[in-house]
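User: Could you check the structure of this?
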Amino acid sequence: MYDFQPDETLAPAELYRQLGDAADALTAGESDGIANMANVAALIWEFVPRLNWAGFYRVVQNGTEKELVLGPFVGRPACIRIPFGQGVCGAAAASGETQLVEDVHAFPGHIACDAASQSEVVVPVTRNGEVIAVIDCDSPEAARFTKEDARGLEALAALLSERI
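Assistant: Sure, the predicted structure tokens are below.
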């Protein structure tokens, strides 16, 4: 049994270091990417305060086009398929760059899966230069996420790139 006890009073850099250590412990040696995404989504939910959604969208080939398909998550039911380039997740997948959005309602083409979401950070997970998934975190607070959150999730994405 794993019993991670995150301390929400930690500085963000230390919180994300501990999150990475926990994710490493849970995913090391496990070859099932869905299982690893499920455990890491639960860890993000436990470690990162003030979220209303945390999880993954996976890149799937649909005919000649790639799209994002809902993966393991914690939160309310979500959009199942997102085209590349649409919404915050689609923008991250298409560009390969982290999207740090203080006000989702001001983001062009935002896809509102949960009306409570006010801010969002989406980090691409890449392998061999290709986006294979995105980590998506939503908050009911405007401007909830910082560059430190983005950096912490980017480190997590790097760890997971060969494990999902």
